[in-house]
Structures
1.
Amino acid sequence: MMNIDSTDRQRLSEIRDLYAENLYESVIPFWERHSIDTDHGGYLTCLERDGSVYDTDKFMWLQAREIWMFSHLYNRVRPESRWLEFASIGISFLERFGTDDKGDFYFALRQDGKPLVAPYNIYSDCFAVLAYAEYGRASGDPAMLAKAIAIHERIGKRKSDPKGIYNKQITENREIKTFGFSMIELNMAQVLMQNTGDSRYMSTISEVTESILNDFIDHENNIVYERLGADGSHPDCMEGRLLCPGHVCEVLWFLAKSTDDPELLKEFAQALKWTLERGWDRDHGGIFYYQDSEGLPTDKLESEMKLWWVHDEAIYAALLLGYLTEDEQLIEWFFRLHDWSWPRFVDSEYGEWFGYLYHNGERAKSLKGGKWKGFFHLPRFLLESIDTLDLMLETP
Amino acid sequence: MMNIDSTDRQRLSEIRDLYAENLYESVIPFWERHSIDTDHGGYLTCLERDGSVYDTDKFMWLQAREIWMFSHLYNRVRPESRWLEFASIGISFLERFGTDDKGDFYFALRQDGKPLVAPYNIYSDCFAVLAYAEYGRASGDPAMLAKAIAIHERIGKRKSDPKGIYNKQITENREIKTFGFSMIELNMAQVLMQNTGDSRYMSTISEVTESILNDFIDHENNIVYERLGADGSHPDCMEGRLLCPGHVCEVLWFLAKSTDDPELLKEFAQALKWTLERGWDRDHGGIFYYQDSEGLPTDKLESEMKLWWVHDEAIYAALLLGYLTEDEQLIEWFFRLHDWSWPRFVDSEYGEWFGYLYHNGERAKSLKGGKWKGFFHLPRFLLESIDTLDLMLETP
C-alpha cells in the first residue's frame, strides 16, 4: 500500500475532519433548512447566500438530484428518518408534476408544478432514474425501483435522438457525440446496479469504459476530449476542440469505482494528470471551466470562470486515483486543489459553498443555489472524500 | 443649440478623427482582408487577433449583418465598388444556401453552405431583411428589395410563434415578451423605410416607440426592463428581473433617430441616464452585460463581463442623445465611456477591437470575430459617431 509520511497523514486527517464538519454541520443543514418547499412539495433551489429564496421555479435536474442525495444519505450514512421524508417530498412532487402525457420529464416547472419548459433535455430523465433508484432502496418500495428501470429503458429508446422534435442540429452534415452522455449512462448504470443488485448493468459500464478509453482519450496528444465526430475524429472546429476538465475529472472517478484492474486505473490516473496539468490556471490557480484543445478561443464567455462543481470533482478524482494507484503526484494535486478551493468557495459565515468565482478567484456570485447549482456535487464529493480518506488513514 | 466650450470642442474633434482613423484604417481593412471567403462565398467570421481563421462555420446573423454593413458603407459613405462586391459575395451565398425549403433562414451553415443548425431563430430572418434591403438599394436591383419585403412579411406571420416547433416554453403557464424583438422590429422598419422610401413602416416605428415607452420603461422605479409579462407586469423571477443595459442603449438611439419631438427625446435621455447609472460598474468601470433589477443573482455566468458591443452602443447613445437634448450629463457619459473603452478594447497592434473583457477590464478573449462578433456593431457605431460629431462640431 501507499506509503504516507506522518506530515501528509496529519494533513489528510485534518482535511477528513474538515470535510465531515462541512458536510454535516454546514452543507446538509443549509439545504434541509432552506430548500424544502412545505407549501407545494419539491425543493426550492434558487437560494441566496443566506438561504433566502430569489426564484421559485423548479428545475428538474436539481429536483431529481436532491431526491437522490437525501436518499443516498439515508442509504449510505444512516437511516435518518428526516432524510427519507425530505426525499419523499421530492418524489411526490415528481410523481405528480414531473412528466408530460408521454412520460418524458419536463425541464422546468413553476413552484406549483405547472410546466414551464418542455421535455427537450433527456438529462432530466436521466437524473430521474438516479432519484427513483436510490429512493426505491431507501423507501423499500419496489414500485419506485420498477419506475427507475422503466424510465431507464425509455431513455435507451430515445437516446439515438435524445432531443426529439427539439433537435436543431442537422446531423447529416456534422455529427458530434458528446462525452456528457457517456458520463450519465455510466452514472445511471452504477446507481441502478447498486440499488437493484442487478448485474446486467455491468455491460453498460464496460461499454462506456471502452468508449471513453478508445474514443475520448487521445493518447497521442494527451488530451481527453469532450466531443467526438461520427468517424471517431475530433473535428477541427470550435465544437470539436472543446474541452471541459470538470467533466473529465467526474467521469474518471466514476470509472475508477467500477474496476480493480491496475492497468486500467493507471490509464485513468494518467488521463487525470493530463487534464489537471492542462486545466490548471497558471496565472490565478484553479481549474478552467472550458478550454480549446489548441488554445484557440472557445465560444463560451464563461470559459475561465472557476466553478464549485469542477473543483469538487477535481479534488475527489485526484484523491481517489491518487489512493488507488499510489500516485504521489495525484496526492499533491489533491492538496493543491483543496488548498486553492477551500478559502475561496467555502462560506464560513452562512454555510455551504459559493458556486461561481471569476477567472482570478474573486467571488462572482453570492448565490448558494440556482438553476444549475443544487444539493448534489458538493455533498457527494464530501461524502466520497470522507470515505476514501478513512480508507487511506486506516492503512498503517 | 448646445454650447460646447473650447476644451470639449477640442476633445470632440480629436475623438472624431480617432474614430475616422479607426474605422477606415483599422476596422474596415481588417474585415476586407480576413473575412471574405473567396473559395465558397460568404464570410469567415471566426477570426483570431491577427485575422487568422479558427473556425469556418457560417452563422446567419453575422453573414447577413456583414452584407448590410458593406452595402451600408456603399450607400452612405461613397459608392466604392469593392464594398458592393463584398456585399454581393455575401448575398450570393445567402441566396444559394441561406434558407430551407419553406424559406426560413438557417442559424448556421458549414463553410461550403451545408446547413448545420435548423431555422429555430427568427433573428436570422430579421437580419436577412436588413441585408436584402440595404443591398437592394446599393445594387439597384428591385428583386432584392422585393425579397427584403417578402421576408419581412413572412416574419410578421411567424412572429406570434417565432420559434415554431423549436419552442420549449409552455407559454400558457408563463408568458414573457422580450425587448429584443421590439428592437429588431424597429431596426427592420427603419432600414426598410430608408431603402424602399415606403412610409408605411412609420406605423411600426410608432407602435414600437409606444410599447417601449409604456411597457418596458418603468417610470416609477427608473428601470428599463428586458422582459415583460403578458399582463404588462415585470414578473418577480430571474427571467422577469433581467436587465441588459446594452440593448437599452441600442434601442434608445434607434428611437432617437425616428423622432424630433423634444419631449420624447427627453424621455429617452432620461431612460438612458437611468440605465447608464445603474449599469456602470463602480468598482472596475464599464457597463455590465446583464443585471438583476433587484440586485439578486442572474442565471448568466457572464453578467459582469464587459462586451465591445455594449460599450459601442452605450457610447453612441450617450453622444446622440446628449447632442439632441443638449444634456451635459450625457456628454460627460460619452467622454467617460469613451475613455474607459478605448484603451481596453482597441487593438493597436493588429487592428480592430477585442470583444470580451473580464469584469475587471482585463482582456478575456483574443478573438476579433466569432460566433456572435462580426462586422456590425463596431463599424456602425464609428460611422454614426463620426456623423454626429461632425454635426456637433459644425455648430459655432
2.
Amino acid sequence: MSDLTLDPRAASFDLQHVVSELAAVRQRWREAQQRSTEPGGRELPSREALSDIVKGLRGALFPMRLGPSDLRQESEDFYVGHTLDSVLHGLLHQVRLELSYAARHDASQSEAKVDAHALHIVRELAHALPHIRELLDSDVTAAFEGDPAARSVDEVLLCYPGIEAMIHHRLAHRLYALGVPLLARLVAELAHAQTGIDIHPGATIGAGFFIDHGTGVVIGETAVIGQRVRVYQAVTLGAKSFPTDADGHPVKGLPRHPHVHDDVVIYAGATVLGRVTIGKGASIGGNVWVTHDVAPGAQVTQARSQRDESVAML
Amino acid sequence: MSDLTLDPRAASFDLQHVVSELAAVRQRWREAQQRSTEPGGRELPSREALSDIVKGLRGALFPMRLGPSDLRQESEDFYVGHTLDSVLHGLLHQVRLELSYAARHDASQSEAKVDAHALHIVRELAHALPHIRELLDSDVTAAFEGDPAARSVDEVLLCYPGIEAMIHHRLAHRLYALGVPLLARLVAELAHAQTGIDIHPGATIGAGFFIDHGTGVVIGETAVIGQRVRVYQAVTLGAKSFPTDADGHPVKGLPRHPHVHDDVVIYAGATVLGRVTIGKGASIGGNVWVTHDVAPGAQVTQARSQRDESVAML
Amino acid sequence: MSDLTLDPRAASFDLQHVVSELAAVRQRWREAQQRSTEPGGRELPSREALSDIVKGLRGALFPMRLGPSDLRQESEDFYVGHTLDSVLHGLLHQVRLELSYAARHDASQSEAKVDAHALHIVRELAHALPHIRELLDSDVTAAFEGDPAARSVDEVLLCYPGIEAMIHHRLAHRLYALGVPLLARLVAELAHAQTGIDIHPGATIGAGFFIDHGTGVVIGETAVIGQRVRVYQAVTLGAKSFPTDADGHPVKGLPRHPHVHDDVVIYAGATVLGRVTIGKGASIGGNVWVTHDVAPGAQVTQARSQRDESVAML
Amino acid sequence: MSDLTLDPRAASFDLQHVVSELAAVRQRWREAQQRSTEPGGRELPSREALSDIVKGLRGALFPMRLGPSDLRQESEDFYVGHTLDSVLHGLLHQVRLELSYAARHDASQSEAKVDAHALHIVRELAHALPHIRELLDSDVTAAFEGDPAARSVDEVLLCYPGIEAMIHHRLAHRLYALGVPLLARLVAELAHAQTGIDIHPGATIGAGFFIDHGTGVVIGETAVIGQRVRVYQAVTLGAKSFPTDADGHPVKGLPRHPHVHDDVVIYAGATVLGRVTIGKGASIGGNVWVTHDVAPGAQVTQARSQRDESVAML
Amino acid sequence: MSDLTLDPRAASFDLQHVVSELAAVRQRWREAQQRSTEPGGRELPSREALSDIVKGLRGALFPMRLGPSDLRQESEDFYVGHTLDSVLHGLLHQVRLELSYAARHDASQSEAKVDAHALHIVRELAHALPHIRELLDSDVTAAFEGDPAARSVDEVLLCYPGIEAMIHHRLAHRLYALGVPLLARLVAELAHAQTGIDIHPGATIGAGFFIDHGTGVVIGETAVIGQRVRVYQAVTLGAKSFPTDADGHPVKGLPRHPHVHDDVVIYAGATVLGRVTIGKGASIGGNVWVTHDVAPGAQVTQARSQRDESVAML
Amino acid sequence: MSDLTLDPRAASFDLQHVVSELAAVRQRWREAQQRSTEPGGRELPSREALSDIVKGLRGALFPMRLGPSDLRQESEDFYVGHTLDSVLHGLLHQVRLELSYAARHDASQSEAKVDAHALHIVRELAHALPHIRELLDSDVTAAFEGDPAARSVDEVLLCYPGIEAMIHHRLAHRLYALGVPLLARLVAELAHAQTGIDIHPGATIGAGFFIDHGTGVVIGETAVIGQRVRVYQAVTLGAKSFPTDADGHPVKGLPRHPHVHDDVVIYAGATVLGRVTIGKGASIGGNVWVTHDVAPGAQVTQARSQRDESVAML
C-alpha cells in the first residue's frame, strides 16, 4: 500500500528540541528564584483534592440536602461519620503539604512537629464544623427572608450562589485562622470560579450574611462584617492604598478594608474602600463610591443631579 | 517494626463527638423549621441531574453542532429521538420530585395526580422544543449580525457565552411557565455559574436577543424584553424596591423590572431599575443609571460634564 | 399483577412527532443559511478537546506545579515530552478541523494543503512554548510583586485566576496569530468561563501583566498593552464604535481598542474606550470612564465633587 | 476544498433498512413468545447493579481488608453502616424488579404486596450478614490451613479465587433461599466469570469450604456439602440424568447432585455425578469418575493399570 | 525542616538507563523482524475499542434486555438506530486498521481501495445483524428448553455464559467470513476471557446451539456443528495433528476439526479430535476421548471396566 | 399529599442492629487471630493498584503495541520514561505495604530499613525489564511459530491469552524472587482471572514458552520448565503430596512439582504430578496422567485399549 498519504502519526514535531528548550527556561527560572535543583521535587497542595474535600464537607454539613440523593434520615450519622473520616484524612494530607512547604527553609521544624501540627489543625476544623453549620443556617435563613422570590430554605440551599460562596468562605476562613492560608485561598478560589464571588478567606463575616446574585463581589482580607448584612452583585469592599514603611514596602497586618456593622445593606455595584466604618443599619446605594465613614442608619445614594442629567439627555 | 512513626491512619479525629454535635445542630434546625423528623427523608431535585438533562437537550436541539462529534446528518433523527427519550425520562423524575416537594403539605394531591401532572409538564416541554430551537436560531443570527468579529453562525454557537446562557434561559423559562420554578432556577444557575450571566427564569425575552461578553449581566424575574434587543456585560435590569402591603410584606406578582421594547441597545455597565419602559429603538449608554422611562429612539448617555471632569484631571 | 400503577417507563412523550418537528426546523434553518444537505456532516473543533489540550500544555509548561502531583524533577523531561506528543497530536486534529471548515467553499485548498498547513501551525506553536513560558514567568513575578498578600510564586501559580487567564491567553494569542481564530476563541472562552476574565485572543499583551481579582475584566481584539501593566476587576478596554464604510458595514482591521503603554495601572471598574493612548506610567482610578488619551504619568480619578455629594447625602 | 476524499462521516450504512429488519425480527420473536407489545417495557434486574451491590457487601463484611484502602478501624462502623444503607437500597430495587417480573402474569400480586415482600427479603439478607461473615471466616481459615503456601489469612482473603467465589456463593445462596433466584444466579455468574468457578446458588455448603485453584469447578443446584470439605480445580459435582414424568418432562425438585459429607477431599478433575453419597473423610483422586456411593474414609483413585499402561508406552 | 526523612519522590530509579536498555531491546527485535524503523508507527486494532463495539451491538440486537435499563419499547428504533450509527463507525475505523495493516506490504492497495473495502465489510455486517439475531433467538430457546433450571428466556439471556459466548461468536464468525480475522479473533478472545469458552471465529455453528456451564470449552477453526447441538463444560472439538507438506510446513486450509451433525449431545470433559464425523443424534459421554467417526444415534461412553475399577478401589 | 404510598427511602433495615452484630463478629475473629485492636489499622497491598501497575508495565515493555493507540515511534522513549516513572512509584508504595506488613512483628525492622529495602526491590525490577522484554519476545516468537493459525507476531501479542499470562508471570516471578510474594501472587491472580491460566509466581520458566488456549492450565510453585516448551489447555503441572516432618507439618522448600526439560510438548488435559522429570523433547499426550519420569524424546499417550473400548461402545 505504497501510495497511502502520510500517516498523521508520522507528523514530526521536533519534540526533542522543544523539550530541551523548555528545560532550559525552567532552569533559568529556578536559578532566578535561587532554587536548588532537588532530584525529587516537592508536592504542593492540590486544587482538585481541595475540591473533593469541600464537596465531602458540604455533604457532611447538610447530609439530606447536599449529600447523596438516596440518603435516608435514619442513616445520616453513618454517612456523616464515614464521609468525615475520609475527607478529614484527605485534608490532613493537604495540610501536611502546606506546612512542609512553609517549613522548607526552617531547620527547627522536624517532620514529627509538622505531623503533630497538621493533626491539630484538622482536629480543630472538625470540631468547628457544628458551629459552621449554625452560621450557614443563619445565612440560609437570611437569604430566605431577604429574597421575596425564595420559596423555601431548601431552594436557597440548592440554588443560591451566595450560599455556595458562604459554605466555601466559612470553611476557608477557619483554615485561614488555623494557619494554612494557601489551602484557605484555594478553597476561596473554588467558590470564586464557580460563583464569581471573591471573598478573601481572611475576611471576618458575622451570622446571617446574604449575597444576592453575587457576580463581581469582592471582599478584602481585613474586612469585618457584622450580623445580618446584605450585599448585591458587583459590590467591592476593598483597600484604598497600602501604607508603606520607610523602605517603601507595604506595612503588613494593618486593617485596610471596611468595617461594616450589623444590618447594613449595600446595593449592586457599590464600592467601599479603605478602613472606613459603615454604621449599624446604614444603606449604601447602587454604584455609589464610598471612601469615608458612614453614620449608623444613614442612606447613601449617588448625587441626584447626575441621575437627572442622564435622564435629561433623552 | 516497633519504631515506626505513627501511622497516619492512626490519627484520631474524635469523630463520634463531631458526628453527635452535627446531629444536634441539625435537630435544632429541624425544630426551628417545624419539620417533623421523617424516618426516610425526601429527595430533592438535583443540580447534577439537571446539568445532564440540559446537556442532552442542547444536543437534541443542535445535533450536528452540540451533539456527539461523530454524528452524521443521516442519523440525526435516531440521535435526537434516543436522546430525547432518555433525557425526558430523567426530567420526568426531576419534575416529580419538585411537584412532590411542593405538595408535601397538601392532602389533596394524590401520588397519581402528581404523576399525571409531571407527565403533562414534560410533554409540554417536549412539544415546545421546536419553537425553542427557532428562537435560539434567531439569537444565533442576532449574535452573528451584531458582532463584526463573528466569522460564522457555527462559531457563535460553539463559543459565545451569551448563546449558552440563552439556551439555558429558553428552557428554564418554559419550565418556569409550566409550574416547576425550582427546576427552572437550577437550570438558570447552571448558566450563571458557567457564564456569569444571571437571568431569572421568569424573564420574558423576545427573539433575536444578543448578550455580548456577558459577565455580570443580571435580568430580573418580571423583566419583559422585546425583539432584537442587545445588551453588553454588567448590564442590570433590576427592581428598585418592593411595594409592601399593610403588614410590611412584599406584594408578590407585581411587575417590578423594566419593560424593554424592540431594537433597544444597552451598553456595558448600564443599570435600569424598576418597571420603567425603554422605548423601541432606544440606546442606553455605558454605566448609565436609569430609573425613569426612556422614549423610543432616545439615546441616553452619562452627563458630559462628568466625562470632562475626569479627563480634566490628567 | 394487574393493579400496578402505570409503569413510569410507559409514559409516552409522542416522540416521533417532536423529532419530526425538530427536523423540520433544522431544515428551514439550513435552507435559510443556504446550506446544502450533506449526507455526512462536518465535524467542528470541540471545546472539550481544547480543554484537554490546554490542560496538557499547562502541565508541560509548569511540570512540577501544574503537572501530575507525583512527578519528580528527575523525570520532568519524560513527562514533558510524552505530554507534548499526545497533546500536540490532539491539537493537530483540531487545527485540521478548523482549516477544513474555513476552506469548505475554497476549491483551491486540497486536503494535502490543509494537512501541511495544519502541521506547520502546530509546529510553530510547539516552538513558541519556551517563549510563552518565559512570558508567563514574568506574569507570575508581576503578580507576586504586585500583591502584598502573595506569599510565594508557587501560591500565585496555583491560586490566582489572573494567571490562569494569562496561561490561556498567551496560548490563544499564538493560535490567533497562526491563523486559527476559532480555536483561539475557544481557548479564550475556557478562561472566561472559569475566571470571568474575557480577553480577546487578538489582544497584544506585554510581559509582566497582572490582573487582580479579575471578574468582569474585558479586553478587546485590537488592544495593545505594554510591559508591567496592572489591571483590577471589572476593567474594560473596549471599543467606542465601529467606523463604517460607504455601505454602512463596519470597516474591519482598524485598531479600535486602547493602546496602554508600559507600567500603567488601571483600577477596578474603570472603562477605557476606543483607540486612545494611555501613556507610560499613568494611573486610571476606579470606575473612571476614559475616552481620550491620557498623558504619561498622569493620574486620572473621578471628579471629586461627585464623591463629596455622595457622602454629603448621609 | 472540492477534491477532498470522501469524509468518513459520509459513509452510509443504509441504517433505516437495518433498523426496520431488526424490528421485524424482534416482532416475530415477541409473537412466538406470546408477548403482548407493551408500550413501555419492563425493566429487568441488572448484572452491573448486582456487581456494585456485591462489591459493597464485600466491603461491609470485611471493612479493613476489602473496604476502602484508607479506612481506619475507629471508623469501621460508620463505613459499614453507610455502605449497607446505600447497598441495601440498591438491592431493594433489584429485588423489586425480580418480584415484579415473576408476578407479571399473577393478578393476585398487588404492587404493595410486591413492595412488602421485597422489603422483607432485603431485611432478611441484612440480618443474615453476620452469619455469612462467620461462615466466610471459616472458609478463610480452611484455606489458610489447607494450603501450605498461604502466608497469612490476609493473603488468602486478598488473593484466593476460591474465597472470592465463596463470598459470592454465600450471598447468592441466601438470595436463592429468600426467593429471588434470578438475582442469586446473577451473583453466581459474576463469580463464575471472574474465577471460572461455577457454583449454583442452590447448592448447600457447610463451613470451612476450600476450593484450590478452582478453574473449571462446577457444583450443581441440589448438591449438599458438609463441613471442612476441600476440592481442587476442574472438580464436577453434577447430575447424571433427569428423571422424567409420564410426559417425558423432567421432574423438578428431586435431589440430583452429590451429597458430600464432612472432611472429604476431592482432587483435581474428579467428576462425581448423581445423588451419590461421599462418606465422611473420604478422598476422591484426581480425574476419577464416580457415580456410586463412596464409603466414609475410603480413598478412591483411578485404576492403577491405566497409569502403568501410560507410562509403559514410553 | 532539615531532618525530614527522604522524600519518597526523591527515590531515584536510574530511569534513563532503563529506558535506553528497553529501546535497545526493541531495536534488536525490530531488526530481527526486519521492520523498517518508521518515524510514525502504525496503529493496530484495539481490544478496548472492540469491547465497546460488541457492547453496542449486543444492545442493538436485544434492546429491551441488554440495552439501557430505562429504554421504553416505544423508543426502541431510535435507540437501535443511534447505537448502530455510532458503533458501526467505530467498527469502520477498526476494519480500516486491520485492512491497512494487512496491506502494509502490498503496493497494489491504495488507501481508497482500503476505504471502499472497509465500508463494504461494515455494511455487510450491518445487513447480517437481523439474521444473527434470529440465530441467537434460536440459541436462547435451545438453552431455555435444554436446561430444566431455566425459568424464562429472559433469565437465559441475562445470565448464561453460553449465550454471552454465542453473541460474541456469531458476530466474530461473520467478521471472519468477511475477511477481518484479527478483529474476529479479538471478539472471540473477549468472550474467552469472560466465560472461559474458547470458540475459534472460523467455526461454523448451526442454529439452536447450547453450551452449559462452559468453562474450558474449546472449538477449533474448521469445526462444523449442525443444528440443536448441546455441549457441556470442558468439551474440546480439536485437531489431532497438522498434515505437513514436503517441506514439513503445515498444510493450511484443510478441515482438521470435527464435523458434528444435528441433535448431538457432548457431555462434560469429552474430547473429540480430528476431522471425524459425529452422526446425527449421537451422544458422547463425559470425559470420553474420541478420534474416530461416531455413527448417527450412537451413545459413546467410557469403558465400563475403568469405572468399576475406580469404585472397586474403595 | 397524605395518601402517597410509602416512600421507598422510608424503608427501614434496622441497620444499627446489623452494624453492631457485624462488629461483634469482627471482634471475635480478631480475638481468635490474636490481633490487637489497633486504632488505625494497616493498609494492605491493593489488587486494583497492582492492576494499574501491570497495565503500565505492559505499555512500557511494548509501547507501540500495548501502549496508547496514538503513540508515535519518535516519542517512544518519552512515553516509556514517563510511564515507568509513574508506575514504579506506585509499585514502590505497594512494595512498602507488603514489607511493612511482613515486618509487623519484627522489632528489628525500622521504617528506614523497610524504605531502603523497598527502593532496592523496585530498582531491581526496573533493571530487569529489558531482560523480561527479551524473554517475552521469545514467547511471542514461539507462539507465532507454534500456531499455524497465527498471522503475525502483532496478532499474537494482541490476542493470545497465553501471552497475556506470560507477561504477568514474568513480572510476578521477578517480584517473587525479589522477596514480595504477596504482590507476586496478586499479579498472578490478575492473569488467572483474565485467562483461566494459573501459574504460581514461583515457577521457573525458560524462554520461548507457549500456552495454547490455556483455560484450566495450572503450574505449581516449584515447577521448572526449560526452553521452547509448549502446553495446551487444562494441563496441570502439580504436586502429588506434601512430605511431612515428624510433627506432621508439611516440609517447606522441597521441590514438589515437575521438572520439564527443553522442547517438551504437553497436550490438553494432561496431568503431571510430583517432582518427576520430563526429558528433553518428550511429548505427553492429551488427558494422560503422569507420575513417573519420562525419558527424553519419549511419546506418552493413553493406553490404546481404552480408546478402542470407547469407540467399541458405539
3.
Amino acid sequence: MKKTVLTIISLIFATSIFAQFGGPPRLVSPEIDGNNVTIRIRAPKAIKVELNGAFLPVQEVETPMGRMSRPMPVEMKEGDDGVWEYTAKDVVPDFYTYTISVDGVSMLDPNNLKVLRNGQNMSNYLIVPGEKSELYLEAEDQKGTLLKVWYPSPAFGANRRMYVYTPYGYGETNKKYPVLYLQHGGGGDEDAWSSLGRARQIMDNLIAQGKAEPMIVVMPNASPNQLASPDVLEPIPGPSLFGQDMESDEFHAGGAYTKSLVEDIIPYVESHFDVIAKKEGRAIAGLSMGGIYTLYTTARHPELFDYIGVLSMGFTPGRDAKAELTPIKDAGYELYWVGCGETDMAYDNAERLLKALDELNMEHTYFDKVGGHTWDTWRVCLKEMAPLLFK
Amino acid sequence: MKKTVLTIISLIFATSIFAQFGGPPRLVSPEIDGNNVTIRIRAPKAIKVELNGAFLPVQEVETPMGRMSRPMPVEMKEGDDGVWEYTAKDVVPDFYTYTISVDGVSMLDPNNLKVLRNGQNMSNYLIVPGEKSELYLEAEDQKGTLLKVWYPSPAFGANRRMYVYTPYGYGETNKKYPVLYLQHGGGGDEDAWSSLGRARQIMDNLIAQGKAEPMIVVMPNASPNQLASPDVLEPIPGPSLFGQDMESDEFHAGGAYTKSLVEDIIPYVESHFDVIAKKEGRAIAGLSMGGIYTLYTTARHPELFDYIGVLSMGFTPGRDAKAELTPIKDAGYELYWVGCGETDMAYDNAERLLKALDELNMEHTYFDKVGGHTWDTWRVCLKEMAPLLFK
C-alpha cells in the first residue's frame, strides 16, 4: 500500500517533484479580501521590490504626451522568510492587470496563474468582485465555446487565425444566430478581445441573464503584418499599420483588412456556422484602429451591417465625415453606437463623428461614461453595446 | 501630417507607451542559431542569474526518489548594460521548457512570448528545429481549429470544459470524422495535450503530410476536483485523485471520470460534431493517470473503442491484468498500442500489461524508443501512435 501511494505521488508530481518536495510552500497571491488586494512574492535576496498594478492609487505624471493620470508603482515590504507584500485597500471592483519588479527586473507573480498578453507584454490579472466587474467573472453555469480557427484568406494569400465565440447551446437546435464582427486596436491581435476584453465572459453573462441576444462573436486579426498573434507565429515581413498615412484614401479603404473581412471572413463564417446571413443578422464594431476599420468598412459596404459600433475613434480632421456617413444613412441601419470618454485621446475624432451624425440627422447612441483610451473603456463599451444588438 | 502620425503612434502604443519610449530596447531571447540556443535577460542589479532549461546538459543527481538524470541549472554571465546571457551549444532538436532565476526568484523570460502552464507552474518554451521537432512546429499551410468547449456533465453535476481539435477543412463537406479521446495525466488538465503535448501542431503536420487520417481529437479534463483548468476556475472542494487507493475497485472503475466520458463526453461529441459514431470511429488513449482511465474504461466498455493507446502506464501488481483485458479480446479491436520507455517509472506496470497481452495472445504494438515519465515521451508517443489510428 505504501508503495502504491508513493507510485501515485510520483506519477502525479513527476514533472514538478523538486518544486513540491524541495521548495517552500506556495504563497497566496493575489489575496482578494473584500476590496483589499494583497500581492506577495518570495524574494529573500532582493533589495527593492515594486508592484506595478492598475489597481494602485493614481497620480498625475509628465509623459511624452503631456500630463497624464496613471497608477504609480509602489514599494512592497519585506516580511518573514523573504516574503514581500503589499496590500492595496479599498480597491474599486474591476478587472486589473499587474506586474512585479524585483530589483528592476519586471516579472509576473509566480503564484498567480491568471496571465495575459497585451501585444508584446505579459502581465498578471485579477478581478475584484463587485457591480462593475460582475460580468467579467465566469458565468455561474452556461458558458460558450471559444474557437481558434485558421481560415483561408485569399485577400492575404495565406491562412490566418481568428477567434470565434459561440454561445452556450449553439448547435443543439436548428437556430440561426446573428454575428458581431469585433475588431481589436493597433498593436492588438485576435486574442485581445478575449483576454484583455473578457469578451467571452461578458457575452456569457449578458446572454445568461437574458440581457443580450445569443450571438456569435467573430474576433479576427486585423494587423496586416500578422497571420496570427505573435506568440503563435512571428510577424511576417512587410509594413504593419504603424507609419501609414492616416489621411490617405488607401488607408481609409481599410486596405487588405477590409477586403479580407468582406471577401474572406464573412463568407467563411456564413458557410461554417449557423448564422443569419443577412444585414439584420450582422453587427460590426471595433476599438481605436478597429474603429477606423469599422467606419470605413461600413462606409464602403453599407449593405452589410445593420448594427455599427465605433469605440474610441471617429474621423480625423482631413476626412469628409458626412460623405463617409451618407451611404450608411441611405442604406438604412438599426443602430449606430459611439463609445468614447472625454479623456480619451481619440475624443476629438469622436466629436467629429458625432457632429456629422447630428448634421445628417442620423439616429445614434452616444455612450460617454468611460475614461481614457484603455481596455477598461472597451470592456465597459462591450457591456453597454452588446444588449442593444439584434433587437 | 506630423500631428496625424503622432496620433496614430499614440493610438497604437497607448497601453505600453512608457515601455516603448522610456525603456531600453527588447532583447532577442531566445536566439536559436542552428543548434545553439542563447537566452538573455536584462537585470543590471542582480548578483546571480541562473538558467533552468530542459535543453541544458544532464547530470546525475540524488532526489527523494533515488538517483535521476536531469538537466542542471547553469549560471548566466553578465555582459554590457546589465544583460545576462548563456548559450547552450549543440542542443538536440526538440521542444524545451525553461525558466530564469534572478537572485533566487524564478521567473519567465520577459522577451519570450511563448509561455505555457504545467499544472501550477508557468514556463517559457522554445523549439530547436530538426528532424525530431519538425512536427512540433506550426504546419506550413493548413492548421486545424482548437475549440474550448463547456459541455454539460450530468455525471459531475456541472458544466465542464474540454478542448476539441477539428482538422483543417472540417465542416466544409458532409464528411464524418473519427475521434481520438485523449486523456492527460495526474496534475494536468484539458490544456496539457495542446500546450505541453503540441497535439494540434502534431496532428496538423501528420494530416497535412498524409501520414494520419484526418480526425477529431477530444481532450477532456479528467481531474475530479476541477471543472476547468486552474487558470480559469479554482479547483472545487473535494478529493483530487491524489491519495486515492490505486488498488481499489472504485479507482479502477475510473470513478466519476469514466462515467462522465461514457455518459457525457462521447454523447456530446457525437451529437455536436460530424463524427463516425461507431466503434470503428473511436480511439482512446491517455498518459499516466490517463493511461489508467484508458485501461479501465476499455475493460468496462469494450464495445466502444477499436483503437486503444496506453502511454506510460500499465497494471499495478494487485490487479488481475488478464481479467481486465479479456473483455477487450472478446469484443475485438483494431489496435492495442503501448508506449513506455525502460527508464519510465511506470515501466514495471507497463511490463505487466505487455506480459498479459502476450499471454492472452492479444495483438499489440509496443513502442519503447522513449525515455522517462515526461512530456518528451508523450509527444513522441502521439507522433508514433496517431498514424496507426483508423487505418
